[in-house]
Amino acid sequence: MEITDLTPAERRVREAFPLGEGVDFREGEDEDPAQGASWGPERTLRAEVLRELLLDGPVRDGRIAGLKVWGARVTGRLDLKYGTVGHPVRLRCCHFEEAPDLYGARVVVLVLSDSVLPGLTAGNLRAEGVVRISCCRITGPVRLQGAKLSGALFAGGARLGSPGEVPEEPVLQLNHAEVATDVWAPGLVAHGKVHLNGAVVGGQVNLNDAELNAPGGSALHAEVLTVGTDLHAMRLRTHGRVNLAGARIPRQLNLAHARLSNPGGQALRASSSVIGELWLRDAAPVEGAVNLRRAQLDLLHVPPEVWPERVQLDGLGYRVLTPHLPAEQRLPLLEREPDGYLPHPYEQLTTAYRTVGDDAAARTVQLAKLRRHRRTLPPYAQLWGFLQDAAVGYGFRPMRAAGWLLLLLCTGTLVFALHHPPALKPSEAPAFNPLFYTLDLLLPIIDFGQEGAYAPRGWYQWLSYLLIVTGWVLATTIAAGVSRSLSRQ
User: Is the dihedral of CA 218, 220, 226, 232 positive or negative?
Assistant: First the structure.
């Protein structure tokens, strides 16, 4: 392209390019690039001129060439597909009429901060430095799938998609991308799906204060995401599912103060994930189901009031549960499993309490497990379970047996002291003792010679039968409780 073909605005940019100097077309720093369609020729740049500069522009010895522009209107499509750009590209506060195409391109640095674009195609992009779309307003999809960035991706404060619309295509696509350092997107607002499934991020993902809107769909789809350190999403607001199934987050998944909402569907799915710490501290009650099946966590910090009505926890493993609360406040969560009674969540909660040395809470959880299991048994087994529960709390409340025995002993002793049963052989019978006679009836393995020498009649005989039967039940349940205690040791 001949120099004579350039407009005055394009000439300014071409003269600044080999020097690495910037050209600022703005009339004020608070200017809104959304109004860029009305900007005149004095600040309009043709995309083909920029392409020519970036691919084959002049350079000057001793200087680092680069494209550095503020406040320009870019007409046409900036087509750098499969191109190699050896200079930094910085187009800030600009208005693009068409979506740039950098598919398969190689760049040093790509900065589009504060610009307005109808989309960005940069799948399989290779960047030696950072890519910045901070505070951009992009109505169409941002395609970065398969990109490899040696630096970070900055998207803080960006506005993606159009309010009130949920397009079929995700508005941010980082599927299978590799980012050497961080994905930094605090305050991101997305009206549509955000895809990070299969992405590998060497540092952290920051979604603090972000708002992701995809009602009825996946607001954040990040299956098999691999993060080097943390995923921070404090004060995150979502309308749609957060899908982190199979993710690997070695340190924190921090959803403190978050508001997750997907009524009628799953609000959070992190099944089969491996996470260091999952935090939902001070978060709003989750609207929608939570699926943590087969996830492995070191620490789980979720207050009881945050959990929704449907929670899938089978196979979930965790070492520490915070905040430390009485078992009675944790147990209702285990009733919310949609598949009914499952033993593993009770065993895991028991293990967590024993890890912190709260054996009393661990016993309470085990007792609740047996009671829940009892509801799944046939009627005759339920009856036997009721007897064991009432007698000794399935062995977890052994003092109940002592109380029952003492009550029966006192009752029998009082009744038989007032009404002595007749002796079978008066000449051979020992002196009647109501206390030891009652003990003979209650304890089948003890014989004080009273039971065989005296035979009550009438309803006293039925009382003796009741004492014998209850004595057997108590002896059996105590033995079961002792064996269970020994097995726990």
Answer: negative
- Which residues touch 385 (CB under 8 Å, ≥6 apart)? 370, 371, 374, 377, 394
Token pair of 382 as six digits: 């339920």
pTM greater than 0.85 (yes/no)? no
Sequence-ordered list of residues with C-beta below 8 angstroms from that of 480, at least 6 positions apart, any chain: 388, 392, 394, 395
- Peptide bond preceding 323: is omega within 30 degrees of 0, i.e. cis? yes
Whole-number Cα distances in Å, 68 to 54, 93, 339: 11, 11, 59
Read off the pLDDT of residues 306-315 as tens digits, 9 standing for 90 and up: 999 999 999 9
Calpha distance 317→330 (Å, rounded): 15
Side-chain-side CA neighbours of residue 54 (13 Å): 28
Which tens digits make up the pLDDT trace of 168-205?
A: 999 999 999 999 999 999 999 999 999 999 999 999 99
Token digits for 286?
Answer: 């989750």
DSSP string, 131-197: EE-TT-EE-S-EE-TT-EESS-EE-TT-EES-TT---SS-SEE-TT-EESS-EE-TT-EEES-EE-T
Task: List, in sequence order, the alpha helices (H) in 261-315.
Answer: none
DSSP strand pairing (131-132 vs 116-117): unpaired
